[in-house]
């Protein structure tokens, strides 16, 4: 069925949307593709089919899924199926309404939404949060490649006039220099997320440098567009466009920004933003794109600037992400990237190589200049060589985000199809190779490998104790303070330095950040839980008679990367132990309520990577409540240490020895001895050395010591269950090196492997006890 109407010799540009299916014409069932909706549906199906098939093979070698989007575009492009060409004449002779129009609209929509959401999710503070180095790198990495502008006039005699006029060829070279000099923040953010190093110091450095470079790039883009209008259109139009941009900035900062703040202020805490405001913001972003197009600017600038104004995080930033992020990233963005790659005709690179070889040279020259400039600056500021090279590669990374620029200059005839094809393939190679190279040379775990002993066992007896405590939820405050009270003492010779870290899941913001509470941050003052917790820790510090100092931080981070912030802060604060909640929650009566799987996963990551010792606290409620009870009795907190053997048990023993200075705490050490223990083993000798001083009468007043002989695993379980009835808090080691074979029968029944065998027994949901548990793992030191 022909959906196009003819009047005389004129062809009217309109078409039907939906068909009656394949049964409409059994002899030619493909007639349905003369309708816009079935044609769009088959295009989308082919795109995602090629994406899935490509990624099925590429993921086996660790290649990013984004590469699959690009390869799908190449498969559907002119080299193979040429979907765009076959679809173009299906609906109308009008290029604006041809068979690719709907797909092109979805592609543009995807770019707009991606640019807007990525900008909303990016913290503006990141640009100035890593010191002087990222500012210097951001500025130098933008201006150093501009040195290649001095090469523009080389080989101009060889330019084929059939390929491009001299003026246009020089303009094409200028476009290449400017686009390759830019480091787009979304590209940097994407690769850091892909490599899972966005929370590392290297990640923060790269983000900050990229933000500085991107701001310079936006300014350069506005200037270049205005200059092009001035030269190729008219002087008056260029002045009009520049004034329109200035007016836009004034409206955004003095009208739109106060309106956004008004929306945030009138939204109650922990309540969602009303849909009408979310839709108004999205429509404003689209209107800004139309505004910039009308005034001859790149349409992505509008959503980008609107996104900068919207504060990251809740309530508005997180609401926008929750509503649009999945649809954009999983549907619109793949279509957009594939559509851009479908326009890449790789054969033109070969057929017009003599015309574009200088463009290829310029691109590679800028890559080398940028690598050398970034590498030199990093080495000058004493960064390790591998990290310097990793930062340089990340800041030279080109990916799908640059497609927006390439398509814009292609449509405006500033670059040829051959140059466009080369830039697409260059981005494809960069997106596939750079992540694998960076992953091979930079392991974020290595920064936490500590060759110095940073645990409690090796501290000087009278030295201060440094502890980092982490809080997820309000109920963690009381249990953490109760634990810290065990070490407070009226004797100032044994100070305790406590670092409190509030862990906040990052929602609606893509850049992690650690904020000291010494800084006045509006968001922290609005969070009633954090404010209340800080007051509680301040009161605890005042009641500790100056023996305890407390410093508080808040980490806004992704759940799967929170361990990076904790480990980084532990290194910076030179702590001997990190104490984290277990994630298991109990009712007031001591009954099991729920498990926080995210907290448990975090604890497991910390056990693998932490630069110091780790303590996992399981609070059933009685311990934290009893700690707040004021009593004249000297011993009103009973702490039991179950000692079986191994370095973790020795670390747990060293920890509780520091509780003897608190007159409210009574410590009992119970050693379980297997009847077949071998005294010649080195661990056994170290265990006896650690316990030797407890047997003297000097310690008996504060620390009681008993021994029990066990012959089987069954007796161990019974002993643990009996001890759980006698104490408020049990402190145990996670691993028991030399006796692990004796406890091997229990490992298959372990529910919480991060707590170890004994810790799991004491934290079991069916254990009829109100005892709390602290499971200790000594620093995992590099051998």
Automatic annotation (TrEMBL):
<feature type="transmembrane region" description="Helical">
    <location>
        <begin position="133"/>
        <end position="155"/>
    </location>
</feature>
<protein>
    <submittedName>
        <fullName>Cation/H+ exchanger</fullName>
    </submittedName>
</protein>
<dbReference type="InterPro" id="IPR038770">
    <property type="entry name" value="Na+/solute_symporter_sf"/>
</dbReference>
<feature type="transmembrane region" description="Helical">
    <location>
        <begin position="276"/>
        <end position="294"/>
    </location>
</feature>
<keyword id="KW-0630">Potassium</keyword>
<dbReference type="GO" id="GO:1902600">
    <property type="term" value="P:proton transmembrane transport"/>
</dbReference>
<keyword id="KW-0633">Potassium transport</keyword>
<dbReference type="Pfam" id="PF23259">
    <property type="entry name" value="CHX17_C"/>
</dbReference>
<feature type="transmembrane region" description="Helical">
    <location>
        <begin position="205"/>
        <end position="230"/>
    </location>
</feature>
<dbReference type="InterPro" id="IPR006153">
    <property type="entry name" value="Cation/H_exchanger_TM"/>
</dbReference>
<feature type="transmembrane region" description="Helical">
    <location>
        <begin position="356"/>
        <end position="381"/>
    </location>
</feature>
<dbReference type="GO" id="GO:0006885">
    <property type="term" value="P:regulation of pH"/>
</dbReference>
<feature type="domain" description="Cation/H(+) antiporter central">
    <location>
        <begin position="535"/>
        <end position="622"/>
    </location>
</feature>
<dbReference type="InterPro" id="IPR057291">
    <property type="entry name" value="CHX17_2nd"/>
</dbReference>
<dbReference type="Pfam" id="PF00999">
    <property type="entry name" value="Na_H_Exchanger"/>
</dbReference>
<feature type="transmembrane region" description="Helical">
    <location>
        <begin position="388"/>
        <end position="406"/>
    </location>
</feature>
<dbReference type="Pfam" id="PF23256">
    <property type="entry name" value="CHX17_2nd"/>
</dbReference>
<keyword id="KW-1133">Transmembrane helix</keyword>
<keyword id="KW-0406">Ion transport</keyword>
<feature type="transmembrane region" description="Helical">
    <location>
        <begin position="175"/>
        <end position="193"/>
    </location>
</feature>
<feature type="domain" description="Cation/H(+) antiporter C-terminal">
    <location>
        <begin position="637"/>
        <end position="779"/>
    </location>
</feature>
<dbReference type="InterPro" id="IPR050794">
    <property type="entry name" value="CPA2_transporter"/>
</dbReference>
<feature type="transmembrane region" description="Helical">
    <location>
        <begin position="242"/>
        <end position="264"/>
    </location>
</feature>
<feature type="transmembrane region" description="Helical">
    <location>
        <begin position="101"/>
        <end position="121"/>
    </location>
</feature>
<feature type="transmembrane region" description="Helical">
    <location>
        <begin position="60"/>
        <end position="81"/>
    </location>
</feature>
<dbReference type="GO" id="GO:0016020">
    <property type="term" value="C:membrane"/>
</dbReference>
<dbReference type="InterPro" id="IPR057290">
    <property type="entry name" value="CHX17_C"/>
</dbReference>
<comment type="similarity">
    <text>Belongs to the monovalent cation:proton antiporter 2 (CPA2) transporter (TC 2.A.37) family. CHX (TC 2.A.37.4) subfamily.</text>
</comment>
<dbReference type="GO" id="GO:0012505">
    <property type="term" value="C:endomembrane system"/>
</dbReference>
<dbReference type="GO" id="GO:0006813">
    <property type="term" value="P:potassium ion transport"/>
</dbReference>
<feature type="transmembrane region" description="Helical">
    <location>
        <begin position="418"/>
        <end position="438"/>
    </location>
</feature>
<feature type="transmembrane region" description="Helical">
    <location>
        <begin position="32"/>
        <end position="53"/>
    </location>
</feature>
<keyword id="KW-0472">Membrane</keyword>
<feature type="domain" description="Cation/H+ exchanger transmembrane">
    <location>
        <begin position="46"/>
        <end position="438"/>
    </location>
</feature>
<keyword id="KW-0812">Transmembrane</keyword>
<keyword id="KW-0813">Transport</keyword>
<dbReference type="GO" id="GO:0015297">
    <property type="term" value="F:antiporter activity"/>
</dbReference>
């Amino acid at each position: 069925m022909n959906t196009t109407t003819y009047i005389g010799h004129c062809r009217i540009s309109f078409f039907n949307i939906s068909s009656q299916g394949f049964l409409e014409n059994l002899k030619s069932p493909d007639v349905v593709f003369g309708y816009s909706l079935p044609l769009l549906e088959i295009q989308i199906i082919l795109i995602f089919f090629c994406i899935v098939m490509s990624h099925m093979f590429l993921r086996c070698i660790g290649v990013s899924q984004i590469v699959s989007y690009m390869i799908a575009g190449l498969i559907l492009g002119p080299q193979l199926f040429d979907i765009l060409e076959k679809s173009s004449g299906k609906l109308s002779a009008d290029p604006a309404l041809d068979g690719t129009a709907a797909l092109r609209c979805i592609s543009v929509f995807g770019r707009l939404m991606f640019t807007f959401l990525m900008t909303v999710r990016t913290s503006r503070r990141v640009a100035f949060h890593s010191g002087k180095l990222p500012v210097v790198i951001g500025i130098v990495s933008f201006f150093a490649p501009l040195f290649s502008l001095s090469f523009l006039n080389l080989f101009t005699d060889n330019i084929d006039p059939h390929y491009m006029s001299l003026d246009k060829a020089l303009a094409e070279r200028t476009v290449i220099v400017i686009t390759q000099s830019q480091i787009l923040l979304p590209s940097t953010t994407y690769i850091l997320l892909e490599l899972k190093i966005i929370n590392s110091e290297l990640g923060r450095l790269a983000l900050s440098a990229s933000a500085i470079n991107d701001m310079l790039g936006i300014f350069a883009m506005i200037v270049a567009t205005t200059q092009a209008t001035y030269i190729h259109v008219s002087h008056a139009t260029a002045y009009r466009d520049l004034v329109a941009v200035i007016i836009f900035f004034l409206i955004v900062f003095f009208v739109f920004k106060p309106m956004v703040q008004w929306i945030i202020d009138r939204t109650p805490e922990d309540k969602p933003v009303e849909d009408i405001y979310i839709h108004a913001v999205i429509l404003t972003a689209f209107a800004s794109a139309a505004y910039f197009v009308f005034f001859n600017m790149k349409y992505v600038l509008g959503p980008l600037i609107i996104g900068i104004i919207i504060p990251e995080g809740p309530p508005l930033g997180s609401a926008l992400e929750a509503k649009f992020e999945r649809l954009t990233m999983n549907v619109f963005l793949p279509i957009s990237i594939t559509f851009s790659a479908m326009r890449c005709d790789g054969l033109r690179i070969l057929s017009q190589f003599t015309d574009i070889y200088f463009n290829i040279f310029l691109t590679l020259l800028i890559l080398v200049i940028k690598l050398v400039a970034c590498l030199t600056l990093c080495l000058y500021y004493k960064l390790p060589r591998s990290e310097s090279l990793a930062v340089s590669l990340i800041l030279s990374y080109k990916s799908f985000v640059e497609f927006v620029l390439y398509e814009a200059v292609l449509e405006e005839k500033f670059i040829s199809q051959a140059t466009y094809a080369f830039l697409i393939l260059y981005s494809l190679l960069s997106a596939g190779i750079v992540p694998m190279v960076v992953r091979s040379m930079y392991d974020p775990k290595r920064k936490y490998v500590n060759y110095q002993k940073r645990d409690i066992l090796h501290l000087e007896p009278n030295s201060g104790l440094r502890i980092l405590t982490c809080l997820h939820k309000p109920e963690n405050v009381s249990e953490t303070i109760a634990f810290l009270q065990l070490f407070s003492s009226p004797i100032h010779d044994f100070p305790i330095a406590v670092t409190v870290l509030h862990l906040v899941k990052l929602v609606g913001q893509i850049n992690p950040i650690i904020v000291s509470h010494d800084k006045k941050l509006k968001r922290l003052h609005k969070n009633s839980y954090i404010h209340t917790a800080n007051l509680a820790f301040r009161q605890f510090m005042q009641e500790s008679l100056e023996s305890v100092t407390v410093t508080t931080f808040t980490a806004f981070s992704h759940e799967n990367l929170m361990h990076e912030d904790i480990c980084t802060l532990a290194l910076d604060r030179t702590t001997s132990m990190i104490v984290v909640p277990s994630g298991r929650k109990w009712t007031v009566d001591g009954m099991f309520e729920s498990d926080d799987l995210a907290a448990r996963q975090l604890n497991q990551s910390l056990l693998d990577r932490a630069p110091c010792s780790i303590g996992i606290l399981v609070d059933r409620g009685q311990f934290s409540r009893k700690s707040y009870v004021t009593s004249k009795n000297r011993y009103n907190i009973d702490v039991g240490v179950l000692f079986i053997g191994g370095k973790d048990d020795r670390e747990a023993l060293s920890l509780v020895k520091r509780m003897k200075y608190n007159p409210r705490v009574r410590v009992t050490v119970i050693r379980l001895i297997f009847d077949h223990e071998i005294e010649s083993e080195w661990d056994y000798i170290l265990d006896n050395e650690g316990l030797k001083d407890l047997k003297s009468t000097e310690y008996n007043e504060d620390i009681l010591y008993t021994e029990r002989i066990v012959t089987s695993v069954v007796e161990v379980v019974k002993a643990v269950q009996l001890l759980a009835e006698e104490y408020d808090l049990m402190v145990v080691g996670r691993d028991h090196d030399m006796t692990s074979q004796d406890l091997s029968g229990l490992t298959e029944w372990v529910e919480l492997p991060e707590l170890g065998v004994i810790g799991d027994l004491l934290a079991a949901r069916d254990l009829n006890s109100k005892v709390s548990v602290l499971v200790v793992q000594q620093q995992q030191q590099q051998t």
